[in-house]
Amino acid sequence: MLAALECNRRLRAGFFTLIALLFLSLPAHGAEKRILVFGDSLSAGFGIAVSQSWPALLGQRLQANGSAATVTNASISGETTAGGRARLDAALGQFKPSVVILALGANDGLRGLPVAAMKENLAAMVALAKKRQARVLLVGMRLPPNYGPQYTKDFDDAFRDLARREKIALLPFLLEPIALDQQAFQADGLHPTAAAQPKILDHVWAALKPLLG
Do 140 and 161 contact (CB within 8 A), yes or no? Predict the structure, then answer.
């Protein structure tokens, strides 16, 4: 009788050990990072192959580094902050990101739209992302001086003020590494070439990497 009980005890112990080992060998899906790039034509790969855009290169870099993080690029050419605000909640629900790269505002500036409205839209999107427990990297833009000193200053300050107020990461100027290089832009003078995308990625990566830890 005692031998039988001891046998049963050992079998149960072995069974639970096996279950524990199987559990430990399962991939840690809960730790997977999902990155949502939410921007305009500068992130959508306008005028180049989508596979050459910096968000696509970001996905390739993560994969090459052995990271389980995935990248979804929901950027749309011509998008304003108002348009982004209207569709972000659905995108968050669909893709469930842990990190949102919010790169909107350039088209608001080019159209001379009110900076206060742009800032309000960006703030609403940051709030939506935070509500979903996602970290936010806010990506800023700068305008050429022909928009006037006050407008360009207010535009630039809007990103800094919002990032400071919401305590989120900020990349002040997406195109900073190439802004003064005419050869880095397509014929329209606005959209970066395929050759410039790796430089943009390196710039974004420096600000994004701390959010992936």
Answer: no
Strand-pairing partners, residue 136, are 100
| Full-model pTM | 0.86
67 is catalytic: no
Evaluate if residue 90 carries a pLDDT over 50: yes
Q: How confident is the model at residue 22 (pLDDT cuts 50, 70, 90)?
A: very low
Catalytic residue among 40, 41, 75, 156: 41
The candidate with the shortest Cα–Cα distance to 200, out of 35, 69, 42, 48, is 42
| Residues 140, 42: Cα–Cα separation, whole Å | 12
Residues forming a β-bridge with 29 = none
Of 53, 75, 191, 203, the catalytic one is: 191
Residue 167 pLDDT > 80: yes
User: In terms of residues, how long is the chain?
Assistant: 213
Q: What is 124-140 written as a DSSP string?
A: HHHHHHHHTT-EEEEE-
Tell me, yes or no, if 203 is annotated catalytic.
Answer: no
Secondary structure class of 28 (helix, strand, coil): coil
Spatial CA neighbour of 52 closest among 187, 197, 199: 197
Clarify whether 29 is annotated catalytic.
no
| Residue from 74, 145, 132 nearest 104 by CA | 74
Tens-place pLDDT, residues 113-166: 999 999 999 999 999 999 999 999 999 999 999 999 999 999 999 999 999 999
Provide the angle, in degrees to the nearest 10, between the axes of the packed helices 197-208 and 54-64.
Answer: 60
Residues near 161 by Cβ (< 8 Å), separated by ≥ 6? 119
